[in-house]
Amino acid sequence: MKIMKFGGTSVGRPERMHQVKDLITRGDESKIVVLSALSGTTNSLVSIGEALASADKVLAKSRIDELHAHYKEFYPQLLKSDVAREKALEIIKEHFEFLNILLKISFNEAINRDILAQGELLSTKLFHTLLEELEIPAVFLSALDFMSIDENSEPELQKISDKLKAILAQHPDDTIFITQGFICKNHLNEVDNLKRGGSDYTASLVAAAIQATACEIWTDIDGMHNNDPRIVDKTRPIAEMSFDEAAELAYFGAKILHPASIWPAQQFNVPVKLLNTMQPEAHGTLIKAEVDSVGVKAIAAKDGITAIKIKSSRMLLAYGFLRKVFEIFEKYKTPIDMITTSEVAVSVTIDDLSHLEHILEELGTFCSVEVDRDQTIICIVGNMVSESKGAIQSVIDSLIEYPVRMVSFGGSRHNVSVLIDSKFKKEALQSLNQDLFTW
Ligand code: ASP
Ligand code: MG
Q1: pLDDT in tens, 350-380
Q2: pLDDT at 95 over 80
Q3: Given a cut of 80, is residue 293 above it in pLDDT?
Q4: Which of 37, 141, 223, 427 could bridge 284 with an S-S bond, Cβ 3.0-4.6 Å?
């Protein structure tokens, strides 16, 4: 059995949903189809929640009506028969009645999460109605019956696996299952979600839960590119990469894949394929445990980085200094991305600035601190990059024109990271693109 996940743009128009139907009915293998909400819907739901949170019911109502109008236009283009159209209208009515009721009751965070869940529920129900109309047998599964997270918002993979396997066992003869990405239940049994972009994570968790043969992520681009196509000309999709390489890239801004969605597939060794709904025959990107290819494969950049230089002469020959520093970041639940050290100083980068003032204040009690804002991490990823001859030299040579604030090399076999001022990002990426992909 394999997993096929389709993102918002792949289901965002009636004709696209028909393409998805074609794709999931190819081949004999059984599949669990995971769908996102129609593109734009989750953003709308977020804005409805925000209007309700600020007690602006008029605004909330107009946003609900706007979204409602979109669905009322969508379903007659998706479905032909009166029976199917009537069913779709019922589905839409039910979900918008629910949203409208919220205008009358007091708002809280649990309700907000309920609002966010409506998008995936709508898309899967409408898609299932399409399959019914076309007499394609498919089982509708509610992700709320098996997807769950614990009190730290971490997915409960074992529980998910037990529940999902039990549900699938009730349908031994069925081959197509439709379910929602993104949504789940939390430890209080409330409706919750896996955070924005979380449908990829659902797909990977479901793939791990049933030890699927493959986890296909269908989007609107032809795989993970070797550089950011919005910034650099002449990028190309990467044919294959290892889980480790993909994990390095997914975090550093390669928006095609939710960063958390690597580990479940990796843990159960389920190959992940990034494929293009608009060009189904294109190779896309295959992510698996081992790859033969050596050398630089991709470059990614992450903006909004702040570098903190922490200097103390007491660091000289002292032990426990780094612990003291890290404990402050831990106390304020602020993840550190890059680190470089010298004898008397350590530089770290963070991207979550919510507790910066407190962190600086506490560091200031035992060191001097300098802060550089608006920095960009450029991450160069490739199999064995750290061991390939000349890789680091090529990176440094290529960046000769730009002041490099930090370099992190040797932390993993797959990554060299450099920190530069964001104003040099575009040129730096272009230069690296030209220089690193010739060999
Ligand atoms: N619909 C959700 C979002 O827009 C989840 C997803 O599409 O992955 O964030
Ligand atoms: Mg996505």
Answers
A1: 999 999 999 999 999 999 999 999 999 999 9
A2: yes
A3: no
A4: 223
36 CA from centroid of ligand 1 (Å) = 6
Looking at the predicted structure, is the pLDDT value of residue 4 above 90?
Answer: yes
Burial class of residue 146 (count of CB atoms within 10 Å of its CB; 0-12, 13-18, 19+): buried
Ligand 1 pocket by C-beta < 6 Å: which residues?
7-8, 36-37, 42, 119, 181-182, 196-199
Residue 337: give its domain's CATH number.
Answer: 3.30.2130.10
Joined together, the tokens standing for residue 387 give: 């061991």
Q: For ligand 1, pick from 192, 196, 274 the residue to mutate: most ligand atoms within 8 Å of CB.
A: 196
Chosen domain end from 219, 249, 278: 219
- Sign of CA pseudo-dihedral 77, 83, 84, 85: positive
Q: Is 390 annotated as a binding residue?
A: no
Is residue 308 within 8 Å of residue 349, measured between CB atoms?
Answer: yes
Please say whether the beta carbons of 245 and 289 come within 8 A.
Answer: no
Does the residue 65 lie in any domain? yes
Are the C-beta atoms of 370 and 311 separated by less than 8 Å? yes
Domain range holding 130? Answer: 2-219
User: Is residue 290 situated within a structural domain?
Assistant: no
Query: Is 90 exceeded by the pLDDT of residue 55?
Result: yes
**Is 176 in a helix, a strand, or coil?**
strand
Q: How many alpha carbons lie under 13 Å from residue 179 in its C-beta half-sphere?
A: 27
Distance 7 CA to ligand 2 centre (A): 6
Q: Is 362 annotated as a binding residue?
A: no
Across-strand partners of 249?
none
